[in-house]
Specification:
The complex is a heterodimer of chains A (767) and B (279). Chain A is extended, with a radius of gyration of 54 Å. Chain A is built from 36 helices and five strands. In chain A, the strands form two sheets. A two-stranded parallel sheet of chain A has the order 1-4. In chain A, α11 packs antiparallel against α18. Chain A is mainly α and 767 residues long. Chain B has one helix and 20 strands. Chain B has a four-stranded antiparallel sheet with strand order 1-2-3-4, with no helix packed on it. The N and C termini of chain B lie far apart (85 Å). The chains are: A mainly alpha (767), B mainly beta (279). At the A-B interface, α5, α36 and β5 of A face α1 and β12 of B. β5 of chain A pairs antiparallel with β12 of chain B. Chain A: Keywords: Coiled coil, Nucleus, Phosphoprotein. Chain A: Pfam families: Utp14 (PF04615). Chain A: This is U3 small nucleolar RNA-associated protein 14 homolog A. Chain A: One of its GO terms (biological process) is rRNA processing.
Chain lengths: 767, 279
């Protein structure tokens, strides 16, 4: 339709242009003074005339085949055809001709435009607007809910609600109309003036002002927080130091010292790289320390301990060894420090140290080790490791191209590990027996897990399990297994976390185990280590199935103990159910026997029937025997008369329990009972005892102390005389929260309302 | 020979200052004070009776008008001032105990329609009138800032919400109560009751609660966010309720009725607490 209109308008436009081109002498004004219908016809004629005017340069019109009443070049109508006119149909002939390009373009433009929807009528718009605004307003109002609720539930309210500020005038106002008169006052004021204390307007001294300017409140707060934090840290540090100082273990202190030395060395190395001059100074310092050590008689066999050992050395092998050790140390210390050799040499040294067993190492190091500190620590470490026989302490698998710094770092790490071990041991000692047991298991577990093969096995196992799991997810039994294994492992690891800390890499999940496995490819397998392990725990070498069994056993236990509702229902079922059934049957039997005689249901039905009969309105019989006929003993009023004076009762409204076979609803309120019933109950009423207590406790001052009496009789609302109570203000109340729910529950309880007010007008709200 | 002295701590019986109450030692043993409930009952009864006897609800009458007093308003910032308007066109300002003086208008506005009610904004210099529509006026201008309407019947009264001051409530003679938002200049909600509402009054402590004085002898307290059912229906009047006003505490309100009585209702009770009537 719109397309049609557009077409028309377009055509009309082109027609106008043609009209403009018309010669002046053509009778144009002919149609002006005639009627409308006549005018239209004339207009048509005119148009035809115009079209015929063009002559040669006008294209000949194609014949039209439409069955329309009006056929015109300028307007298209689909009147006759009875079909709707579609723009596409009109465009088809145009496409072929090239001269109508502009029209085509315009038409296309018309086609592309979409019709704008009709605007809503005014009422609808207003309604929508109203709804939106109402929602907003109710949101605004909802912020009052908590306050209103609070005020409603408050035991006592004192109005006016807003706390009145004590009306103190600022000192400036007080001082403005005041003069120092007495001597004392004058003196005081002079003092004020001398000290540049402000007397009148700004109450701050210049110093105070400056301080205010210097630091804003927030800045100050931040600074304060910082200081606090620093203090706290310091105190922690002090406490820690104190604690550490208390530790009596000599070994611990030795290790600590070593660690410090290591740290110093490391720093020195760094310094040497970064800043050679300061590095040199450092070196001098260490040199000096070494010299001091040399000068001291610490490792000569002159100490108390050494003397005692010397006595014992004859008989005791260990004592002899210890003495020899000390002597070795002494020698080592007495050796003069050589200037730091080249890095290549060092690297070689370290490599050798790391590749070759400890005993060889020691000798070599003693010979040309550049660094006595490092040396000592290395050897002692190794020794300690041997003494402890901890597989964890063994040196790491090494890549061949380890740089010197890396080596250092590892050494430091070892130190740290030692320290940790100490800490842990101390804690272990404190722990209870139970825990220790658990840990021993955990320890075993960790030992197991560290050996790569076992890891590998574990991994494969888990993979298998996973596959199983994926294949049969429906099976209840298999569902538990994999997660359980994981959980188990996690739990174990959590248990012995301190132990695990000793290990260089912590294995936390199966994924990590897998990663470890990948790493394994790059590492050189070490037969020695393997052998060691073999010796140590041959059980571990026993292969996968056993391990798996173990895991699975744990799993099963878990399943049984922790969460197995389904299993329970499957496993326990028959016997227990039977038992229950029996019990129930017994119970039923008992009850049946006990109440064999009475038929409760029939009784109830009878009762109900009676109630129904009773509630039925009775016919009124107004016949008077003997009135208008013979009366006396044995004579009954005639049936006609009875019929005449019988007033039939109206049909009563249907009973409410008509459709409730199991209930009797008594609609008669017993006024005699109502007289004795309680009308008002204490508000949050939960138990009848509550009410009884309120009835029994006296309120008067005769039975209560004064304070209790006052408390009991405080009025709910207190208003102050002479104060205007202003409407509540948001500023007075302060806090907002937007939850309307609680109040709405409390307040709009339609049942309560309707129950209380049966006589309610019909209302309907419109938005 | 040892003599036992009877001694008492003076703290137990001596007052700290002269202004303190005398200390009366008292034994609260319940066996010494039997019949608590009956005694208390008698006391309470006596107290109630005496309260009735000595109650003086009528404080004073304020004279001066020569015609019926048609409207009355409290002064928002002065406790002792009451403003009243009479049918003879006089406006009086009264100081409660004494007689009042006549006030001269500062400013006169002539409108096109009849104004049947007026209320002033609680904070700003804006007031609202009602008649054919609700108009919001600035005090300094002679034409309304905006006018709002919903329906065609004449509106009998308009009231500003004292807390959320942009809200207005009005009641029209086509039995409905309409709420407006002044900021958006649009009506919000409409409640249609069985009979005409004469006035409404907003609770000064609970922003969304208002009470409507209805012709069907009842008062209805509504929550404006849930207008489907009234929060409470207050019954006791035996004729059309003409006016209602809240106490500043928002816990009670007073209503005036065509049955020549004034009743005081607690907000959460459906029955009146007190009734005052003339002959």
């Amino acid at each position: 339709m719109s397309a049609n209109r557009a077409m028309e308008s377009l055509l009309a436009l082109s027609q106008q242009e043609e009209l403009v081109d018309l010669p002046k002498d053509y009778p144009l004004s002919a149609s002006e003074d005639e009627g409308d219908s006549d005018g239209e016809r004339k207009h048509q004629k005119l148009l035809e005339a115009v079209s015929s005017l063009g002559g040669k340069n006008r294209r000949k019109l194609a014949e039209r085949s439409e069955s329309s009443l009006k056929v015109s070049e300028f307007s298209v109508s689909s009147e006759g055809s009875g079909e709707k006119l579609v723009l596409a149909d009109l465009l088809e002939p145009v496409k072929t001709s090239s001269s109508l390009a502009t029209v085509k373009k315009q038409l296309n433009r018309v086609k592309s435009k979409k019709t704008v929807e009709l605007p809503l009528n005014k009422e609808e718009v207003e309604q929508i607007h109203r709804e939106v605004v109402f929602n907003k307003t109710s949101q605004v109002l909802s912020k009052w809910d908590p306050i209103v609720l609070k005020n409603r539930q408050a035991e006592h309210l004192v109005f006016p609600l807003e706390k009145e500020q004590p009306a103190f005038a600022p000192i400036e106002h007080v001082l403005s109309g005041w003069k120092a008169r007495t001597l004392l006052e004058q003196e005081i004021f002079s003092l004020f003036h001398k000290n540049k204390q402000p007397v009148t307007d700004p109450l701050l001294t210049p110093v105070e002002k400056a301080s205010l300017k210097a630091m804003s409140l927030e800045e100050g707060k931040m600074r304060r927080a910082e200081l606090q934090r620093a203090r706290a840290l310091q105190s922690y540090y002090e406490a820690r130091a104190r604690r550490q100082k208390k530790i009596k273990s000599k070994k611990y202190h030795r290790v600590m010292k070593k660690a410090k030395a290591k740290q110093a060395l490391k720093e020195f190395e760094q310094l040497r790289k970064v800043n050679p001059t300061t590095g040199l100074e450092e070196l001098e310092k260490t040199e000096k320390a070494r010299m001091m050590e040399r000068m001291s008689l610490k490792h000569q066999n002159s100490g108390k301990w050494a003397k005692s050992k010397a006595i014992m050395a004859k008989y005791d092998l260990e004592a002899r060894q210890a003495m020899q050790e000390q002597l070795a140390k002494n020698k080592e210390l007495m050796q003069k420090l050589q200037v730091a050799s080249e890095s290549v040499e060092e690297e070689g040294g370290t490599e050798v140290e790391e590749l070759v067993p400890d005993a060889v190492n020691e000798a070599q190091m003693n010979a040309d080790g550049p660094n006595p500190w490092m040396l000592r620590s290395c050897t002692s470490d190794a020794k300690e490791a041997e003494i402890q026989e901890d597989p964890e302490q063994l040196p790491e698998p090494l890549a061949h191209n380890v740089s010197e710094s890396e080596g250092d770092e590892r050494l430091v790490a070892e130190e740290e590990i030692l320290l940790k071990e100490f800490e842990e041991r101390r804690s272990l000692r404190k722990r209870s027996q139970l825990n220790q047991d658990a840990e021993s298991v955990g320890n075993q577990e960790t030992k197991d897990s560290i050996s790569q093969e076992v890891l590998f096995e574990l991994r494969t196992l888990s993979q298998k399990l996973k596959e199983n799991h994926q294949s049969s997810k429906q099976k209840a039994s298999s569902v538990g297994t994999v997660p359980h294994i994981q959980r188990e492992e996690l739990a174990l690891e959590e248990e012995d976390e301190p132990l695990l800390l000793q290990r260089p890499e912590r294995v936390q999940t199966l994924e990590e185990l897998e990663e470890l496995e990948k790493e394994e490819c790059f590492q050189i397998p070490r037969p020695m280590l393997k052998g060691h392990r073999l010796k140590k725990n041959p059980n571990n070498q026993t292969d996968a199935p056993k391990k798996k069994k173990k895991e699975q056993m744990i799993d099963l236990q878990n399943l049984l103990t922790t969460k197995s509702p389904s299993v329970k229902s499957l496993a326990v079922p028959t016997t227990i159910e039977e038992l229950e059934d029996e019990a129930e049957r017994d119970q039923k039997q008992m009850i049946k026997e006990a109440f064999a005689g009475d038929d409760v249901i029939r009784d109830f039905l009878k009762e109900k029937r009676e109630a129904v009969e009773e509630s039925k309105p009775q016919d009124m019989d107004l016949t008077l025997p003997g009135w208008g006929e013979w009366g006396g003993a044995g004579l009954k009023p005639s049936a006609k008369k009875r019929r005449r004076f019988l007033i039939k009762a109206h049909e009563s409204p249907p009973r409410k329990d008509k459709n409730l076979p199991n209930a009797i609803i008594n609609e008669k309120r017993d006024i005699y009972a109502a007289a004795h019933q309680v009308r008002v109950l204490p508000h949050p009423f939960t138990h009848h005892r509550q009410f009884e207590r309120t009835i029994q406790t006296p309120v008067g001052s005769t039975w209560n102390t004064q304070r209790a009496f006052q408390k009991l009789t405080t009025p709910k609302i207190v208003t102050k005389a002479g104060h205007i109570i202003k409407p509540i203000k948001a500023e007075d109340v302060g806090c907002w929260s937007s939850s309307r729910s609680d109040l709405s529950v409390l307040q709009r309880n339609p049942e309560r309302l309707s129950a209380r007010h049966k006589k309610q007008p019909k209302k309907n709200s419109i938005d | 020979m040892k003599v036992k002295m009877l001694s008492r701590n003076p703290d137990n019986y001596v007052r700290e200052t002269k202004l303190d109450l005398q200390r009366v030692p008292r034994n609260y043993d319940p066996t010494l004070h039997p019949f608590e409930v009956p005694r208390e009952y008698v006391r309470a009864l006596n107290a109630t009776k005496l309260e009735r006897v000595f109650a003086k609800p009528f404080l004073a009458s304020l004279d001066g008008h020569r015609d019926g007093v048609n409207c009355l308003a409290k002064h928002p910032k002065s406790l002792a001032t009451v403003l009243s308007g009479a049918c003879d066109g006089e406006q009086w300002k009264m100081d409660a105990p004494a007689y009042g003086e006549e006030e001269e208008p500062l400013h006169t506005i002539l409108g096109k329609t009849v104004y049947t009610g007026i209320d002033h904004h609680w904070k700003e210099a804006v007031f609202a009138t009602c008649g054919q529509q609700v108009d919001i006026w600035d005090e300094q201008r002679t034409s309304p800032i905006c006018s709002m309407t919903w329906g065609f019947d004449s509106i009998s009264s308009v009231k500003f919400n004292p807390i959320e001051t942009f809200l207005l409530g009005s009641c029209a003679s086509d039995r409905n109560i309409v709420l407006y938002d002044m900021r958006q200049s649009t009506p919000l909600k409409k409640v249609i009751l069985d009979m005409r509402t004469n006035t409404i009054c907003w609770n000064p402590m609970e922003a969304f609660i208002f009470t409507a004085a209805n012709e069907d002898y009842n008062l209805y307290t509504f929550d404006m966010c849930a207008l489907d059912t009234p929060v409470m229906v207050h019954m006791d009047h035996v004729s059309a309720v003409l006016d209602v006003d809240y106490s500043p505490t928002g816990k009670e309100f007073v209503s005036a009725s065509f049955d020549k009585s004034i009743r005081i209702f607690p907000v959460d009770k459906s029955r009146s607490r007190e009734v005052y009537h003339t002959k």
